[in-house]
Amino acid sequence: MRIKYSLPIVFFVALVIIEKENNIISRVSGKLALKQTPQTPVQPSRSAGAPAERDVSVPSVGKLSSAFTLMKRRLENYSDDQPASLEAAPPAPRPPQPIRRHILLLATTRTGSSFVGEFFNQQVDNMFYLYEPLWHVEKTLTLETGGTNATAAAKAYRDVLRQLFLCDFSLLESFIDPLPVDHVTASLFRRESSSSLCGEAVCGPFVKGVFERYHCRNRRCGPLNLTAASEACLRKEHRAIKSVRVRQLETLRPLAEDPRLDVKFIQLVRDPRAVLASRMVAFAAKYNNWKQWAKNRDMPIDDDDEVKKLKSNCNSIRTSAEVGLRRPAWLRGRYMLVRYEDVARFPVRKAAEMYRFTGIPFAPQVKAWILKSTRASEETGGIYSTQKNSSQQVEKWRFRLPFEIVQVVQKVCGPTLKLFGYKFVTSEEMLTDKSISLIEDFW
Ligand SMILES: *[C@@H]1O[C@H](CO)[C@@H](O)[C@H](O)[C@H]1NC(C)=O
Ligand SMILES: *[C@@H]1O[C@H](CO)[C@@H](O)[C@H](O)[C@H]1NC(C)=O
Ligand SMILES: *[C@@H]1O[C@H](CO)[C@@H](O)[C@H](O)[C@H]1NC(C)=O
Ligand SMILES: *[C@@H]1O[C@H](CO)[C@@H](O)[C@H](O)[C@H]1NC(C)=O
């Protein structure tokens, strides 16, 4: 029965593509359906089915018409996503749709993700960029133990990200503390790190007496109006979000498969030894145990909680990357792995590669920003400079982390180091010998 219908259906699909006017389609489909009726008798073999099925087997003109309307709509959705798959069909006379990309920069803390996020934040003309919106979600979902329920958090992260990519802030709002009033909040985490949230369109009048902790730096704005932010978002061509909170890439699969989105995942990784060294400085209180071990040149035991945490972090980063590198169908063309060390050494080249991957032109102002931020140390620098020569930063950890700690990291994060091409050091001398690079070049 299906096969019998498929020929006329294919014919109609072609018609649907050629004829955009609904009234023409129903007129033509009405004529054809009438002609066809005598050729499609009820098949006795199918009569085992319920009477309702038999009704379906002799569809009325009206039913056919509505079926074709539905198919036409489906087809529109389908061709939006995969224009190439309709090559065989005649070109559809529809206006060219702007390609809208949804970039998700996935990282962990101290991997240079704020810097890499700027590559997209600086593309002010056509990019709506959000910096760590999931901070609010994590904070709300943090349990008394200090951690989160990974399953519940993963689902909340995914749902919030999906809405934000569609410029809908409502779910995120429910996680902001205190709750926004009339969609206005003075508490959005790091608002100032997102130029989209400090732009003209989103910068409301300054309100005296309202304290905004993360206030815009470039101008004085009132508290953030999320309705205005949403409107600004809808006007931008592309959207980018940076997050250090998603633990498993796999949990974001529904985003990759959502027909409303065209998601590009960029996973940023860094040598776990360097990450640990950096966290011991940045999050000194949390890393007190590590600092003690480093100071005393002790080696913590394998089942110490801190060591287990490190191992679990390394494993989740590696597992995500393994999923991406395996290139399953749902991720094809949607995953890029980037090492911090490569970004630090070749920032412009890597930024250009990222833009090529996303299919968005690499704007000159982004390139100019990168050059300014990576090169300025000597000229404008001194100790007051916030701009670092990022090449120099890459190897600094080798003089900060004692060999004992390095050995522990290599032991628990071994497979992660191997996967990303970070060489093991086998002696104290090798650790501090700068003529030996620890970064393999197979990328
Ligand atoms: C097409 O996509 C829109 C959202 O983009 C959705 O609302 C609509 O139901 C879809 N149509 C069909 C027939 O799947
Ligand atoms: C975590 O959350 C999920 C879903 O919300 C729930 O089914 C599960 O029991 C929770 N697990 C723990 C350990 O609380
Ligand atoms: C927020 O912005 C929207 C749209 O720009 C506007 O209609 C609304 O009045 C603003 N809300 C407040 C409380 O200012
Ligand atoms: C950064 O410093 C290194 C070592 O001092 C130097 O070789 C490199 O050229 C500098 N990079 C830039 C972009 O200036």
How does this model look, in words?
The protein is α/β, with parallel strands linked by helices. Helix 2 (22-36) packs across helix 4 (61-81) and helix 6 runs antiparallel to helix 7 (150-165). Helix content is 49%, strand content 7%. It has a domain at 133-236. It contains 21 helices and seven strands. The protein has a five-stranded parallel β-sheet with strand order 2-5-1-6-7, with helices on both faces. A two-stranded antiparallel sheet has the order 3-4. The model is unreliable at 14-59, 74-87 and 377-387 (pLDDT under 50). The structure holds 2-acetamido-2-deoxy-beta-D-glucopyranose (4 copies). Residues 70, 73-74, 77, 260 line the site of one 2-acetamido-2-deoxy-beta-D-glucopyranose.
Unreliable runs, pLDDT <50, ≥5 residues? 14-59, 74-87, 377-387
Along the chain, the helix and strand elements come as: HHHHEHEHHHEEHEHEHHHEHHHHHHHH
The biggest beta sheet, please? Answer: 5 strands, parallel
Query: What topology, given as strand order, has the largest sheet?
Result: 2-5-1-6-7
Structural class: alpha/beta
Distance between the termini: 53 Å
Strand proportion, as a percent range, falls in 5-15%
Pfam family, one: Sulfotransfer_1
Catalytic activity: 3'-phosphoadenylyl sulfate + keratan = adenosine 3',5'-bisphosphate + keratan 6'-sulfate; chondroitin beta-D-glucuronate + n 3'-phosphoadenylyl sulfate = chondroitin 6'-sulfate + n adenosine 3',5'-bisphosphate + n H(+)
Domain Sulfotransferase: 101-420
InterPro entries: Carbohydrate_sulfotransferase (IPR016469), Gal/GlcNAc/GalNAc_ST (IPR051135), P-loop_NTPase (IPR027417), Sulfotransferase_dom (IPR000863)
